[in-house]
Amino acid sequence: MATQIVLPKLGQTMEEGTIVEWMKKEGDEIARGDVLFQVESDKAVLEVESKAKGVLRKILVDKGVKVPVLTPVAIIAKPDEDISDLLAGAGAAPQAAPAATAEEAASAAEAPAAEAAVAESAVAAAPAAPIERERTFASPRARKLAAEKGVDLAYVAGSGPNGRIIEQDVLSYLERQPAATPLAKRMAEQQGLPLESVAAAGTRVTAADVRAAGAAPAAAAAPAAKPAAAPIQPAAGEIVPMAGVRAIIAQRMSASSQTTASVTLESMVDATELVNIRTKLKDALAKQLGFSVGYNDLLAVIVARCLVEFPYMNARLEEKGIRLLGEVNVGMAVDSERGLLVPVIRNAHTMGVKELALAFRALVDRARQGKSLPDDLTGGTFTITNLGMYGVDAFTPIINLPECAILGVGRIRPEPAVVDGQIVVRQHMWLSLTFDHRLVDGAPAARFLQQIMRYIEEPYLLLA
């Protein structure tokens, strides 16, 4: 029986979605559970599986088109089954709006050849120069294997969706590497020379071969290394479309700045004890967890505790008034290849450091892969954003609506301080609390910030 596939509602707040990529093409055999397409909604890219089996007879919505939920996007039926009624019921298929210039038309005509070239490159010999692309997308397993084997992903061609590098691509790259001595490998890595570009005088690449390759005139290597693709950097005057995640961020940040009465409080806190306890937890739990406990994990535990103690900060403004929320869901701003994402740790106030750290890593991994679950990025009641790793001391974060406040975290650095009349070196951290003055006054917000600082200065109080 012919089945009309609709864009599903993937999450409570989802109203529309954009088809990012079709994983199947018309004429393909489809089994139940096969991934049909990827859809982007509310910062997340999710895979949609087929609930029917048969042949993908018709794709109704093109890649790149945004449509409301429950819109028909495809038809699955038997090869000889009449689907005219479903086609008529679906109406005109939404199409991507073409920005048709002569140059783009020529580019579109060349697309099949380009796609074939990409597919071929996934199984061909590894390139002698980095693959020129705007961003390198790779699965966590591929990144882990590359890190273990010392593989630069810039040289690995991806065979996954949209050129994404998967684990098998890294394995194939390793299989193609010529035999080389350990010293030759280290020298090639230091000089930025891919081993496959080094000619071996004998049965394997030696240090002498690497030295000879490094001394070769740059002009001789230029033809092989010259990329065929267009430059990554946009040309001066070029307009970058405001679409996808960037458009969502722009819309929400603009709404926040226009609708909230935001005030920012800044304070410097002595984080010496926080640094000490983080070092001890990192050493004690690294083997068990498989990663090091970070400052964000500890700060999330501290903020969650403070939100329970100061419930007026765990609130949102609604039509009838200020609602104090029963759940403490801490959002953690994360930088990704797709833009700013805010995975939400639900019921963070019920978790210890270890449990929270595991939950946070799982959320971040899914977000950076573009595989967040429908509610991973929604439902936050308070957000933490940390720019300390970029050398930022203090900044003015923008409230993530409909939340009441957001905590900005600056870098930790050693500075001289007076303690008990003596000048000593202490670890200092800047905190920036932006809150909505419509919901909270300055003094109550300052007391909330003071309590956060107290737990940072005396983290053992979390055990009380």
Q: What key phrases describe this protein's structure?
A:
Dihydrolipoamide Transferase, flat, OB fold (Dihydrolipoamide Acetyltransferase, E2P), six-stranded mixed sheet, single chain, 464 residues, four-stranded antiparallel sheet, 12 helices, Chloramphenicol Acetyltransferase, alpha+beta
Care to describe what's here?
- The chain is an alpha+beta fold.
- The protein folds into three domains: about 5-90, OB fold (Dihydrolipoamide Acetyltransferase, E2P) (Beta Barrel); about 100-215, Dihydrolipoamide Transferase (Irregular), CATH 4.10.320; about 245-464, Chloramphenicol Acetyltransferase (2-Layer Sandwich), CATH 3.30.559.
- The chain is about 35% helix and about 20% strand.
- It is built from twelve helices and 18 strands.
- The chain has helices at about 85-90, 100-120, 140-150, 165-175, 180-190, 205-215, 220-225, 245-260, 270-290, 295-310, 355-370, 440-455; strands at about 5, 15-20, 30, 35-40, 45-50, 55-60, 65-70, 70-75, 260-270, 315-320, 320-325, 330, 335, 340, 345, 380-385, 405-420, 420-435.
- The chain has a six-stranded mixed beta sheet with strand order 9-18-17-16-12-15, with helices on one face. A four-stranded antiparallel beta sheet has the order 1-8-6-3, with helices on one face.
- A hairpin with a 2-residue loop joins strand 17 (about 405-420) and strand 18 (about 420-435).
- Helix 10 (about 295-310) crosses helix 12 (about 440-455).
- The N and C termini lie far apart (about 65 Å).
